[in-house]
Amino acid sequence: MKALDFDWRPLALVPLLALAALPLVGSGSTWITLTVAGLAMGMIIFVIASGLTLIFGLMDVLNFGHGVFIALGAFVATSVLGAMGDWTGSQELWRNLLALLPAMLVAMLVAGAVGLAFERFIVRPVYGQHLKQILITMGGMIIGEELIKVIWGPEQRPLPLPEALRGSLLIGDAAIGKYRVLAVAIGAVVLIAMLWALNRTKIGLLVRAGVQDREMVEALGYRIRRLFVGVFVVGSALAGLGGVMWGLFQQNVIPQLGAQVNVLIFIVIIIGGLGSTLGCLVGALLVGLLTNYTGFVAPVFTAFASIALMVAVLLWRPQGLYPVANR
Amino acid sequence: MSDALLTLEGVHTHIGAYHILHGVDLVVPRGQLTMLLGRNGVGKTTTLRTIMGLWPASKGRIRFNGQDIARLSTPQIACLNIAYVPENMGIFSDLTVRENMLLAARTAKRAEQMDDKRLQWIFQLFPAVEKFWNHPAGKLSGGQKQMLAVARAIVEPRELLIVDEPSKGLAPAIINNMIDAFEQLKASGVTILLVEQNINFAKRLGDTVAVMENGVVVHAGAMQAFAQDESLQTSLLGLAL
Fold it and tell me: Is position A64 within any domain?
């Protein structure tokens, strides 16, 4: 028996997809640009979806209202960054980053607080009832969207990148968007923090165990519902952070942003295997890369590409790339 | 006669529309090993799950150390120092053996904080736990998983150990190993309630016995007397054993 019996094949799909796209894209510099853009998009999707996959894994809760936290995060960022025009308009990178930091923190705090109320009043009454969960969480998202319209107005709002993060870095002939590099870095920090928490702390151990068999975790003396509330709040806060990143990626936000991204994140967590953090990462990177390559090679198929990927993955592994044991 | 650590009085349990337990009366004496026997489907597993609050009792009283626990939640019951090993063992396959053990050690945040002396005792009872310490639990054999499940239940001192069919599907050599382990556990003073289908396993280990039929306990008494009365065994347990 080997101590390290890690399944590398799903993870290897990411570099394989990138290499397979190289001859189709043709130009090496364009390929580098698209690959970095795809990784950035994938990391943002991972930040948004990682909480959702744990929410499902831990309590079997289908939260179709997750998108509202994304939109909320993005709109909070428009207000915070709008009030820090001197900082975002500066040419100095450190002043731009110092403006982004409070925007992200406030977005996470607001999304986390709303997530706490969402769990208490919308999700908790329908534990164990999937059909009701779908209906009531979708209803919650519609209400959330309408409240966003009441607070910020129904029209599209700009979320421009801070001055020093606009434009690209030239590496050879390849143009790499500055913000995309930052998005990859933020995504990597979130990933490392999440892996550390899940693998090096007792609470992380409880979350991983709860995803596999919550009844046994309770029989060992732990209150899984308290744990779930914590995961729900953290997942909502991460969605808020992802909303800021997504909004800056698109440079504008609309109240329907959550509903738009919702489809994508459900595709990602299904590809990855419900409840699996690593699966969520791989799924997000695959969707991010494929969307960018398809957008360049065959734009008409861009919307279809993610769904086709999901179908292909499920034909190969019906439980997703990294199925969670005991589920 | 020892005093009772756990008593069930007129316990009824419903699962959805099904009425499974019809007034179970059971006494588990302190410091002894009680065997809960019966044919398939008579309510043995339901009784254990009801004690743990996993399927709450719809009627009746469950007393542990004199305290009524019938309305407590599963975590509250577990925190009264009751350990439970379910029929499917409840092993977390994606976690390592070490992580499975750490999870059950409620007072330890890291593996190094687990009681080393107790761990050494557990390793001596179940050598496979030490051998595969850093291996994924999902890769263990059925017997090794059962050892891990019992080892995990006793990683910290518990007053009552509840185990559902520990010999199920195990090879004879592993069953002997398991019997040795339970004998040592019994000698350490822990009270044990075992559901078992293997009559030889039950006879070798049990101090007291309770036999169930159709959701009620129909016989309770000393194991020694039960083991010597073959006609009683045949009438209560039939050929299923």
Answer: yes
Query: Is A311 contained in some domain?
Result: no
Q: Is A1 exposed, middle or buried (0-12, 13-18, 19+ CB in 10 A)?
A: exposed
Q: Where are the domains of chain B?
A: 1-81+158-241, 87-157
In a domain, A48, yes or no: yes
How does strand B33-38 pair with strand B18-29?
unpaired
Contact B75 A222 (CB under 8 A): yes
B92/A contact by beta carbon, under 8 A = yes
Q: What's the CATH code, domain B1-81+158-241?
A: 3.40.50.300
| Domain with A197 in it | 29-257
Contact yes or no for A325 and B110 at CB 8 A: no
- ipTM of this complex > 0.90? yes
The position carrying tokens 């822990």 is B190
On whether the CB atoms of residues A307 and A314 are closer than 8 A, the answer is no
Instruction: Write the pLDDT tens digit of every residue in B48-92.
Output: 999 999 999 999 999 999 999 999 999 999 999 999 999 999 999
Q: Do B92 and A221 touch (CB under 8 A)?
A: no
Q: What is the pTM of this model?
A: 0.87
A54: three-class secondary structure by DSSP: helix
pLDDT one-digit tens code per residue, B106-123: 999 999 999 999 999 999
What is the reported pLDDT for A281?
A: 95
> With an 8 Å Cβ cutoff, is B51 touching chain A?
no
Is the minimum CB–CB distance between B131 and chain A shorter than 8 Å? Answer: no
Centre a 10 Å sphere on the Cβ of residue B35 and count the other Cβ atoms it contains.
Answer: 22
Q: What is the tally of structural domains in chain A?
A: 1
Over 90: is that where the pLDDT of B235 sits? no
A206/B75 CB distance under 8 A: no
B99 in contact with chain A, both atoms CB, cutoff 8 A: yes
pLDDT higher than 90, residue B171? no
Answer whether residue A297 is part of any domain: no
Contact predicate B215/B47, CB 8 Å: no
